[in-house]
């Protein structure tokens, strides 16, 4: 086969061309299904060009590593297909979107009864099972325990490459995230003020801790009640901050109830105490909307600007830009500031 890749006759051209060849329509169909199902999420996260480069690099890496680990008897057999590149996508998806739910549909036929159904499973569970299957078959073939026309070793290699790249991007993104937040620290203090350091008495500390426990115990069962406890608590102790996830839930509850001044204080406490949280940008966005609603246009602008300048990877980045470029100017036009 002229354009298939033969491990014993190494050729970069054939590594590339082999990715566009498939053994059957079913082979092509499964690869394209995986690309459609999982590839778009990674493309959205990394961008089209980066995704395209990653796709071909995964295919190249998978083919080269396949050539290094297969038994000698397979070295003169050409391989074709995009499965190595597709496996790279699967490996990256397992790292980047582990809690994404994948829906499986099935049908059954028992005697005269035919039925259908579906179930959901976290992507990391399904992909872990798939990877282990490829790893086991790769080992069995290497040990000459089984024979197969499927390049399990290429699947295994591509998946490893995808995981490594995805872990690398996550570490880089986390480092850049923290670096950007640190750069924006002074601007954040100018916007929200410094976190007050207040020394409380033992009696006051006990009162605060008791209220915190009550909030945590009731947050899921009765959020309105838990929110009321926090509302009363910060009237007396405005610096009080709850555990990260509880604090954001209370802040959102206060905002939904239209208690904007208390919500502002709650969101402020969250951002100042958890500046590196993955929800800090969302809290800033909520602060901006509340400031805008309350007519404090300067603080609204600075809240949205904080996201655009120092949280470039934020999922509310585009919305913050929209508020800065469109929503805020329109609001100022309709409600001009009178000096």
Summarize the structure.
With about 350 residues, the chain is mostly helical. The protein has helices spanning about 10-20, 25-45, 50-70, 85-95, 125-140, 150-185, 185-190, 200-220, 225-235, 245-255, 260-275, 280-295, 295-310, 315-335, and strands spanning about 100-110, 115-120. The chain has two domains: about 10-180, Up-down Bundle (Rhomboid-like fold); about 190-335, Tetratricopeptide repeat domain (Serine Threonine Protein Phosphatase 5, Tetratricopeptide repeat, Alpha Horseshoe), CATH 1.25.40.
What does this structure look like?
The chain contains 14 helices and 2 strands; from the N terminus they run ααααββαααααααααα. It has 2 domains: 167 residues, Rhomboid-like (Rhomboid-like fold); 147 residues, Tetratricopeptide repeat domain (Serine Threonine Protein Phosphatase 5, Tetratricopeptide repeat), CATH 1.25.40. With 339 residues, it is mainly α.
* Level-2 CATH architecture of the largest domain: Up-down Bundle
Count of helical regions: 14
How many structural units, i.e. domains? 2
Q: Within the CATH hierarchy, at the fold level, what is the topology of the largest domain? A: Rhomboid-like fold
* CATH uppermost class of the largest domain: Mainly Alpha
Poorly predicted runs are none
Q: How confident overall, as mean pLDDT?
A: 88
Oligomeric organization of the protein chains: single chain
The percent of residues in helical segments reads 55-70%
């Amino acid at each position: 086969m002229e354009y298939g890749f033969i491990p014993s006759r190494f050729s970069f051209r054939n590594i590339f061309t082999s990715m566009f060849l498939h053994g059957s329509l079913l082979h092509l169909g499964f690869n394209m299904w995986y690309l459609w199902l999982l590839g778009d999420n990674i493309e959205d996260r990394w961008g089209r060009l980066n995704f395209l480069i990653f796709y071909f690099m995964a295919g190249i890496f998978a083919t080269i590593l396949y050539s290094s680990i297969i038994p000698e008897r397979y070295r003169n057999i050409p391989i074709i297909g995009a499965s190595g590149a597709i496996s790279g996508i699967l490996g990256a998806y397992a790292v980047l979107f582990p809690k994404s739910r994948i829906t499986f549909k099935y049908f059954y036929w028992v005697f005269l009864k035919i039925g259908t159904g579906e179930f959901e499973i976290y992507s990391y569970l399904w992909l872990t099972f798939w990877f282990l299957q490829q790893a086991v078959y790769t080992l069995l073939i290497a040990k000459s325990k089984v024979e197969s026309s499927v390049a399990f070793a290429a699947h295994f290699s591509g998946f490893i490459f995808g995981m490594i790249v995805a872990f690398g991007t996550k570490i880089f993104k986390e480092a850049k995230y923290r670096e950007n937040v640190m750069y924006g620290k002074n601007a954040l203090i100018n916007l929200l003020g410094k976190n007050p350091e207040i020394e409380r008495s033992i009696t006051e500390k006990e009162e605060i801790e008791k209220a915190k426990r009550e909030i945590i115990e009731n947050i899921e069962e009765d959020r309105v009640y838990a929110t009321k406890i926090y509302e009363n608590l910060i009237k007396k102790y405005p610096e009080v901050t709850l555990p990260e996830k509880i604090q954001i839930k209370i802040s959102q509850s206060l905002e939904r109830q239209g208690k904007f001044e208390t919500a502002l204080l709650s969101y402020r406490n969250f951002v100042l105490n958890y500046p590196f949280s993955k929800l800090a940008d969302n809290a800033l966005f909520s602060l901006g909307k509340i400031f805008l609603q309350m007519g404090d246009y300067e603080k609204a602008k600075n809240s949205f600007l904080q996201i655009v300048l120092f949280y470039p990877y934020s999922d509310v980045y585009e919305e913050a830009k929209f508020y800065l470029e469109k929503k805020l100017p329109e609001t100022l036009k309709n409600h001009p500031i009178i000096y």
